[in-house]
Amino acid sequence: MKLLSKGVRLPLAALSGLLAGLAALAVAELVSAAVRPESGPVIAVGGAAIDRTPPALKDWAIRHFGTNDKLVLQLGILAVLALLALVLGVLALRFRRIGAAGVLLFGVVGALAATGRPDSTSAADALPSVVGSLAGAGLLYVLIGRLTARPGSPTGTYGASDPDGRTSTGPVRAPTAPEGWDRRGFVIAASAAAAASAGAGLLGRSLNSSRGEGAVASRNRVLLPSPASAARPIPSGAALHIPGISPFITPNGDFYRVDTALVIPKVDATSWRMKIHGKGVGRPLTFTYQDLLKRQLIERDITLTCVSNEVGGPYAGNARWIGVPLAELLKEAGVRPPSRGGPADQLVARSVDGMTIGSPVEDIMDGRDAMLALGMNGQPLPFVHGFPVRMVVPGLYGYVSACKWLQDLELTTFDAYDSYWVKRSWAKKAPIKTESRIDTPKPFARPTAGTVMIAGVAWAQHRGIDRVEVRVDDGPWMRADLATEDTTDTWRQWSLPWKATTGGHTLTVRATDRTGQVQTEQRTPTIPDGASGWHSVVITVD
């Protein structure tokens, strides 16, 4: 057994902590396959972090990272865990049991996060974190033991003389000796742990992925029926063919996604159920997916907008949806809107991942094409957009209308219940504001002098766009050419040919909706009910 210098012991202790952390996560991943993927510690802690993140910070993350915000969060959690594992490894070099206890503490944190999630239904959600932390703590204890082993046995029967010269025997601590290390034992244990952790992690990931195979198969079997009320063909002239402008219909793969799900729920349509119940419901109803497919379906072009969309931002998209009219289902359950004496003014939609979204009953039942959507652009809903069923309500921001992975509808009042986002300082009601965006030229573009096409989209869902105007620098407002309107529930493309002169210029756009309301110049943040202001881009003409 060789002596080990401090300069070498510290890095090896840190490595021990890192291997222990890896083992904890790998074992937790494997155990989560037997419980459910969402119970894994990284997912559970990440979800808890999302729930407790201040709205302003969450909004900042969406603006800067977009749909990658969840990946950034998970990478951040892993980075923090790695750093803490390194620290615990070094700590364990001197305080072996305390270091191992530190790993167990993180298991407790993961267990509390998992069982505290809105979608948690069992104490079994704590198992991945608990079992994983036990494995990690045990490994750290063993590895540090290999680094701090002393020559000979640490305890045993040794001969010792008392002050009178008599010899006694008994279990006493070995004489102090220079610290050494069990190099062979450490290398074997560390290598075995790394291999076992990699194997457990890959197996757990594979098993978790296979859990969704039934849901994938159920989606592949869906054959969307022809709607009883089909959307009219997109009018000629509604889609402008201008380079750089947003396509009139947003492809499914390009449609924005903003939600709190770190793991995309994969729900098997064959076992899916949805209840309608609550205040003012005369006849509670339960529907299967097949029940909805057999009903009279409607097909509509509807533009959705996220409340986190900054002025000029990308979180708006237009799609052709097919689904069941939501107002009809509510009427069958005996629901009346408040204007007709109904006691409930809020419809709370609950997702399988625990999300709650509250919508005004009056808006849902006022004649607009609010629906439980089953399909998107001619296909069953993609999993990322809510398969098997989601809500779509024209004219309302997504956080008060567009619940994905829907499983429950409860009638209540705004006074009695605050939904997920309302608890986090967002407004209870949020009709979409009149907005417009310049798609081309892009900010800081350098077009050449001559005719430059300025183009983009404008929206005021359920009201419609009546006029779009563009201003160059501080010049007069110029009326843009509007594409043909599809419906008042879709965005409208616009364009303006501009004779560009050399130099720097600021292009600004504003819209006027069908009610005569001009888009306000006043800049407001996204919180509490959506951003407002005119969109501008700065370019340089060569």
- State the total count of DSSP E strands: 22
Characterize the main sheet: 5 strands, mixed
Head-to-tail CA distance between termini: 74 Å
Strand coverage percent: 15-25%
Helices, by number, come to 11
Mean pLDDT: 91
List low-confidence stretches: 151-179
Radius of gyration: 30 Å
The shape is globular
User: Percent of residues in helical segments?
Assistant: 25-40%
Give the helix/strand layout.
Layout: E1 2-3, H1 6-35, H2 41-52, H3 55-65, H4 69-94, H5 96-115, H6 127-147, E2 155-161, E3 167-173, E4 180-181, H7 183-210, H8 213-220, E5 273-278, E6 285-288, H9 289-293, E7 298-305, E8 316-325, H10 326-332, E9 346-351, E10 356-360, H11 361-364, E11 371-376, E12 379-380, E13 390-392, E14 406-412, E15 435-440, E16 450-459, E17 465-472, E18 478-479, E19 481-482, E20 492-500, E21 503-513, E22 535-541
Parallel strand pairs: 5-14
Antiparallel strand pairs: 1-4, 2-3, 5-6, 7-8, 8-11, 9-10, 9-14, 11-12, 11-13, 15-16, 16-20, 17-18, 17-21, 19-20, 21-22
